[in-house]
Structures are given as structure tokens and as C-alpha cells.
Protein 1
Amino acid sequence: MIQQIEFTLRAYPRGIHLITGEILNKLPQLPEAGIINLLIKHTSAALALNENADPDVRSDLRSIFDRMVPENAPYYLHTDEGPDDMPSHAKSVIVGSTLTLPVTRGRLNLGFVRVCSGGTTRFALWRTRRGGSDYSERATETYGSH
């Protein structure tokens, strides 16, 4: 059986935000075993799996990507929507707009980060534009089992 739902995530400002709880609250009961595909329908946002044990990971990722894809680069042609627009599209393409995950025993099988503080792997929404607080993200979940 294949099912598909679409929902809206609340608006987030620029940054990397842990959204596991928000996504899990939107999902209906999952099958005993299967896969789930999550798609974010926005060209300046991305989805990733990230650890929850140390917030420095998200800070370091922001720093890495801001250096890799800077604002106001002289070689950008697409500049009509502001200095953060083209870097936002690039970061979204690099990180990706989908996640495909296993469902095991009726739960998402996200794994576990083995550190002293007991962090777990979490969904991270990467909102790549400044002023992103006025955007909500549309997401589609497709899941199924045989």
C-alpha cells in the first residue's frame, strides 16, 4: 500500500533547524516496515539528517557553506532577488530537497549518534535565505510497504 500526504511546516528564519518532532506529529501511523520519502517543495530550503547531540555541528555547517557559497560573489548572474538568493539556491541543490528513510517496526529508523550525551539523529531543515520567516515550507510524504 502506498500513501501520500502533503503538509506545511511552520515558518523558519535562515538557519539549520531541527524539525523531527514537527514532521513526526504530521505523519499518520506508519506501516510495520517500508520506506518513507520526504520532499521539501521550496528552492531555497533543503533537508538533511543531522545529529542532535552538539549544536556546534549546525553552526560549523553554516560556516562551511557560507564560505563555499558566499553572498555577493561577482560571478553570480542571478542577482535580482537580493544577495542571498543565488547562494540559497546553490546550498539547496548541494544539500538536497529529499530524504528517503526506512520504516522499521512502525517507526522511522533514524539511527543513533553514540556519544556520552546520548544524541540521536534528527531531521534538519536548512532555511538558506535571510528573511525566511515569512515563508512556510510545503512538504510531501510518500510512504509504503509491501
Note: The radius of gyration is 16 Å.
Protein 2
Amino acid sequence: MASLNRSRRFRVSVRLWMTVALMLGAIHTLHASGFEDRTLSSSTITVTSRSDSGAGSLRQALLTAQAGDTIRFDPVVFPPSNPMTITILSALPQITQDHLTIDASNAGVILDGFNAPAGTTGLYVTSDNNVIKGLQIVRFKGDGIGLAYGASGNQIGGDWQVGEALRGEGNILTLNGEDGIDISGADSMNNRVTGNLIGLDSNGTLDLRFQVVAPSPAFAQDRLVFAGSQLHGVWRSTDGGMHWQTSNAGLSILNVMALAFSPNFASDRTLFAGTGDGGIFRTTTAGELVPRGSGYPQAAYHGTGSLTRLWD
């Protein structure tokens, strides 16, 4: 009986030893197959420059960051109450690190892609478990943010009531050429998009979908530009498009699809606006708002077909 017990203990010991050996072999196989057993970095990288590249820039931070790092923005350089613009000149590095956080929720940061090449996406994510929050991403010719090639478990945005940025942890994505946020590929799964404003102005009140832009015939001298929007009528700029105001007094249909100047615009200041349901409006003050009285918009209808409404 004693010999039998020793034999059983021996077999149990052998089985335990073999189990440990198999586990060690499996771990070795994982490393040999390219899987790494590593501790994530937890460094904070602070963006201190509004330049497109170089020391302290967002571009440099993305190049330097490792999995687990956090990129933040210096609120002295990027004050939340007066957001500052980073003009992006070429595509930013793709986010290939896992567990990277880009946090602008306590700063005022605008990524402007107007000068980037055609098709450029603001931030392009191809990895997992990343967080992007608090940014304004505007005027890229591609998407504002793109997730592809199996990017999963990412969070875009957050609680819009948390943080000092204009939208808190939420991102503002507007005036981009393609989608605000594009998630592509069947294997890009379990991504969370929350608290963002997409396709609206920074206050979340206007859907800025423009359908036509018309510079003045004398643009070189007067810097006057008009734009027709789908939902918010005519917009007017007197400084070459740097700043805009609506010019909608008397305009009862706000879906503006066409704008045309009078041949004698320099002298008669007449502009015509064509709307989506057959209305034609006219202003003889180059879109300026004038006091009630002479030249003030009046409802005037002519004809029995499509109504012609004078926008005076």
C-alpha cells in the first residue's frame, strides 16, 4: 500500500511539472509569435506650441507618444475661453499606439485642416482603446476623425459638461469635406462616440451646410463674399471670408441654392438669391441690414406659378 501511495504521488508530481512546463512553453510561444507582455507607459506629454511641427507641437507629441501615454494641451497657450488654432499643413501621424489619450477638455484647441492636402483626415486611428476628447476639428478635406483597420474599443468624446473646453470632453467637428467621424471596416468594433457636436457650429445651434459661395465681382477691392446655406439662409463676409454674419432680413425661405450678382452690382448693389422651393429674393443693398423704411424687406409676390418674393 505504501508503494502504491508513493507511485500515485509521483504521477501527480509529474503531471504538475508537465503542466508548469506547458504553461512556460505557451508563454514562450506567445513571445515568439510577436505578442508582448509589457507594462503600458503612463507619461503625460504637454503640447505647448501652436505650430504644425517641431518641439512642443501636437505632431511631435504624436510621434513621441507610446501606448498608455496622455497628450494634453497647455491652457496658457490654448486658453479655453479663447481657443487657439493649430493650422495643419499635412496629414498628422496615424494613431497606431493602443491606450493613447488625447485630452483637450481643459484647453481651447482648434485643428484646422484647410491647408492640408486633399483627402486629409484630421486624426486617423488604427489601434485600440484610445480616447480623443475636447478638440475642435474643422475644415479638413477628408473626415474629421477616422477609425479603420480594426480600430476597436476607442472613445471619441465624453461628458460635454466636464471640462473647461467649449464642449467639455466632447469634440466639435464641422465644415469637414467628408464625415465628421467615420468608422469603417467590419472588424472596427465597440467604439463609443458620445457628447460630440458634428456638423454644427461651436455653439451647437447651426447646421452649417453651405451650397453656394459667391465672391463679389469686385472682390479684389471690396473683399465681399456671400454664401448660401441649406438651413440658415445667406451669410455675408466683408473681409474676404475671415468673418461671417447672416443677412436674412426678409428672407422667408432659408434653403438658399443659388446666388447671382447684377451686371451692374458695383452701382446698383443688387444680388439675387434662389431658394429650394422656387422662391427668388432680391437685395438692393448688397445684403446690408438697413433701418425699417426705404429699402427695408417687404413681402411682394408676383405671378401665378412659382412665387417670386422680393428680398429688398
Note: The longest strand covers residues 210-215.
